[in-house]
Amino acid sequence: MESVLSKYENQITIFTDYLEEFPDTDELVWILGKQHLLKTGGTGPSSDAGWGCMLRCGQMMLAQALICRHLGRDWNWEKQKEQPKEYQRILQCFLDRKDCCYSIHQMAQMGVGEGKSIGEWFGPNTVAQVLKKLALFDEWNSLAVYVSMDNTVVIEDIKKMCCVLPLSANTPGERLHDSLTASNQSKGTSACCPAWKPLLLIVPLRLGINQINPVYVDAFKECFKMPQSLGALGGKPNNAYYFIGFLGNELIFLDPHTTQTFVDTEENGTVDDQTFHCLQSPQRMNILNLDPSVALGFFCKEEKDFDNWCSLVQKEILKENLRMFELVQKHPSHWPPFVPPAKPEVTTTGAEFIDSTEQLEELDLEEDFEILSV
């Protein structure tokens, strides 16, 4: 996580660990025949150590979704083995550079629109909202990111967001969701989408007040069994982990708190991926030690995957008297109308767009665990 520069990343390559020892000046420093600019973007941080762990966990969850999307859930990384080109392209999405769509720079800057200053620790829900907004600028992966609200997942809204309108639609501007709804009503059955946008489903939850309520433990563990699982974001206050499974009453997690040096694309276009993978074995913690603020992640590449997920939730999650979250068919009537998120109408790239915090106001803002009054 070291050497995450907010600007001029390529102008300082070997002195980033010692920037604090140099004076704050606009003057150039000359070292062995080369000039270097000491300022690295004003007051911006040169590292995300101490505040970026939840952002890194969000990157891990998203990276797993992209692997499932392009390489398949059964794909495994092998050290020193030539990797598919899709793998290299996935890595480039997460480089610590301002022009990479899911870099620490983009996530931190987009967090400004969520009320988080750069350098401030994020919670699971804030990271989920940031990923949802950044995905609007990511045309290659083309994900539909749905973040549940008020502990409720709405099937109708997800279908509306993921069902892609065919180019040959008879009526310009006709929404596929409307035609499917009409078909369902006439036939009394559920119609399938002709095209499905891969879904990243994130469910932020509060499973207790100061600590996790034991009544949620079994349902929480069931989520890791689902074939659509991307694990969970969570941990302890100001100390985030990426949870990937469980053993008995212990959660298995990856710890992002190992400081790494900056890695960039090499001359041949590939990325040295050694530090992108675990340098130590996954760790474990008792589930009751988990902070109650978490976010579950799921990936549904096809519509049938989502339908299967809904069936599993109804069977394993909704059977509990005190439900961890709700799954409903229709959009609640007392909620504001659901409008699928769309990329703002701008003529710049995503990186340039979020460089101006004023323009973040064009995106809907949602607070952590927003509860709507009935």
UniProtKB/TrEMBL annotation:
Domain (Peptidase C54 catalytic): residue spans on this chain: 26-311
Main location: cytoplasm
One cellular component (GO) term of this entry: cytoplasm
One GO process term, biological-process aspect: piecemeal microautophagy of the nucleus
GO molecular function annotation: cysteine-type endopeptidase activity; protein-phosphatidylethanolamide deconjugating activity
Catalyzed reactions per annotation: [protein]-C-terminal L-amino acid-glycyl-phosphatidylethanolamide + H2O = [protein]-C-terminal L-amino acid-glycine + a 1,2-diacyl-sn-glycero-3-phosphoethanolamine
Subcellular location: Cytoplasm
Keywords on record: Autophagy, Cytoplasm, Hydrolase, Protease, Protein transport, Thiol protease, Transport, Ubl conjugation pathway
EC code: 3.4.22.-
Origin superkingdom: Eukaryota
UniProt record similarity statement: Belongs to the peptidase C54 family.
Function summary: Cysteine protease that plays a key role in autophagy by mediating both proteolytic activation and delipidation of ATG8 family proteins.
Official protein name in the record: Cysteine protease
Originating species: Oryctolagus cuniculus (Rabbit)
